[in-house]
Records
---
Amino acid sequence: MLNRRFLLAALGALSLPAAAMAHSYKAGEIDIGHPWSRAAPAGVTGAGYLTLTNKGSTADRLVGARAEIARAVEIHSSGMEGGVMRMRPVEAIEVAPGAEVQLAPGGLHIMLIGLKQPLVKGARVPLTLVFEKAGEVAVELAVEAAGARGGDEHQHQHGG
């Protein structure tokens, strides 16, 4: 009887939409929500997105990241300057106590420079995040479609 319940629960989980199966991680007092990327071919630059929420009483900073799938990994910001979208590397991303910081298309993001293999929709790509205080944490980027904006839970975060 117990095995049958387990099997039914497992089958039910498989039928959930992908957005409902979002994944999260923790580094010290920092919650890392739904790390994801868009599908991309090998040889180009990909990007990683996620949400950082500081549940603690002291600030922390995301100071770096690394991934075997890329030649180099950098933290970048992007924004409009004089009508042109520009990207710039940033030294770190501050996460103040109680604050939430979104790494999302058109803003802060993690650059995966020189992809050694393609980012394929449906795959999970290992990425190590490095925090100043919380240390290192291994996460997986969920690869979504090439034009994805990060699933339904992220749509309200983007302006028109």
Note: The helical segments are 2-14.
---
Amino acid sequence: MEKKMGISELVNKYDENFWDFNGVRKEGLHKLGKYPATMVAPMQYELLSLIVSNNTGFKTLLDPFMGSGTSLVEGNNLGLEVFGVDINAYAVLLSEVKLNKYDELELLNMKQRVSDKISDNEYPYELHEFPNINKWFREDIIDSLSKIRRIIMEENNVWIRRFLWVCMSEVIYSHSNDRTSTFKLHIKKKEDIESIRDQCFKMFERSISSSYEYLEKNDEPSVTIFSGDSNEMLSELSSESIDIICTSPPYGDNATTVTYGQATILFLKWIDFKDLSGDEMLISNYSKIDSESLGGKLNENELPPIKSIESYINSLSESKKKKVVKFFSDYYKVIEQLVRVLSVGGYMLFTVGNRRVDGIIQPLDKITREMFLSMGLHEEKIFTRSILSKKMPSKISNVSNIGAVSSMSKETILIFKKEN
């Protein structure tokens, strides 16, 4: 009998540059919504398909930092029951919309209703309000978006409403006064704000038409999504219940890496919260999601017993150490939970990047590897890929005496197995 190839051997069959996926663009469901620094869907699909084809008994996949739901969609495409977790209510909404199944006739009828109401110049609605709304939106844009908001709220089907909120988020993205060239909220120049053309209605209808075709129709989904902190939500899962954990975790605390909360908060300020999941307090201000995310709460924390973390921490200035310690304290606790829920024979598939703190590279790949090994996981394969298509600003922050820091250009993929 021919010996079955291991994951490492299967990965090695591909050309080294294959994993860069040069020129690949988002397709299908992955085109829905706006979300920063998303995973490369074809890469995750290829890796997951290798694992699934080599382990035909695998049934479940978890992404504890699901973001826009890339790994969940690809796992679902491979016939797996998928589980996702995120603290960001917009990430939860976007992932739920992508993975829900819709009635095609309901979608077609909705399109006509929305179009009729947009064309109705006598349609009644109230102007929406929230703190600093006039800072982030021009008065005429507020008027147009308020009409769209009212139209969505009148839909009876909650999943139709959720889909329409995602479509509206694309309109908000292109019509806000936010600069959008970085993930942090920054006001545009006055002349740029004045030059925004109010095409809210046209873009909203176009977004519906271009997006609804990608939605799954009729079948019931096999998906469970948790809204909240990963450490808390993972406790809801039974030990050894997940066959594959596939994720791209935060590379550091949100405030100093990718501010997922700030990048999506303007969407959340317009959405009726009854159609969202999670704690409403998280959208109470513009930075709350980021401050409550992994590494965001600066209470006292113990340094995980990982030598590479201690060495790295000691290289940093005192002013930077506290946030980094907090991040790795939270990160270690999540990985402990992930090892607990991973089934014997199951795979851990992490895509990580090494950011800079104080101008010094944070070796998240090395630290993650050491954490996995310390918890008894077996190393199957580690390799790097060039980041060619992920939406990341070329300069992400300024460091005193150094200036603008370039964003990362490489990612590391770590594949580990739980053998006992």
Note: The two ends are 26 Å apart (CA to CA).
---
Amino acid sequence: MDLAFTPEEQAFREEVRAWIHEHLDPAAARKVREGLRLTRDDIQGWAKTLGKKGWLAYGWPKEFGGPGWTAVQKHLFAEELAKAGAPSIVPFGPVMVAPVIQAFGTPAQQQRFLPGIASGEVWWSQGYSEPGSGSDLASVKTRAERQGDFYIVNGQKTWTTLGQHGDWMFNLVRTSNEGKPQTGISFLLIDMKSPGVTVRPIKLLDGECEVNEVFFDNVKVPADQLIGEENKGWTYAKHLLAHERTNIADVNRAKRELERLKRVARAEGVWEDPRFRDQIALLEVDVVALEMLVLRVLSAEKSGKNPLDIAGLLKIKGSEIQQCYTELLMLAGGPYSLPLVYEAMEAGWQGDFPGGTVGLAPLASSYFNMRKTTIYGGSNEVQRNIVAQTVLG
């Protein structure tokens, strides 16, 4: 495995860095670096900017309108975005559902849905989890009954991330109760403006409404919005989940937040505590190890091998690292980290303390929010079982 970047790859990195520096809104970048609240306009505005350049669909092959980058180029692009403090690309459209549409959709579906995803104009949501069906997705109960040229959908999805902004939603729905649970699931695209769709925000520990419940009450969905074959949705879901779990690792954000942690520790005087610095060192070792694992995946892709069987490992370690750095950041901030205060997420407000480093107020909220990472995308306990079966044998 060669971990060195070629001169051509380094030149590509410089090109990407220069373009981001020219086009990224400094106000949005400051919000990202200080953990402040991003609005829909912040997130989608940046997505549309990338879309105009043709880079929102950075992972797509040229035949579907993407840049056709290599695995290494995609990694360098994501790394430069994180370093610059760019708002994260919401993955549900360009990273998750798009590869499914490309692999299993009809030409008509590809022509209909892919352009809006690539441009950033259409915001997609994910309809997988349900009450009682989280890590055990095979037990989904949301029902889609075929009636002529339509499906009638009834049921509920939950923990729908940023679903309050969604235009369209890709869903796992039950179309049959015959055989094993996995064999009766289909993959359906639903317009969230359809009559009978209700979105209800859920307030989390950090005071934010990042996730939602979505209810379907006799929602009429055209049958041509079924991806692939009926009752074969489990196959398509597994294809998508491999991309989701690789994305969850988010090693580039971890590298950025590690440097932030060092800055905060120095500013708040805890850097001189050898025990605290030991914890930072242990975190840094884990981040480097995660990056090596990501580069191993890239090396496998470069040589034509399928690296997705270790996506669970990336998810496990990446999510644990996210929890670790948010906890250490909060501990470094001490009393200046303000829990459950809505105003703490607004720019410039640091609470009623006589000091404190700028950007400390949201640290407790970030800590609370990251408790979810070892659960969503398939809980880490379940992922360890999968890794044991598929990787270790």
Note: Residues 242 and 308 are 6 Å apart (CA to CA).
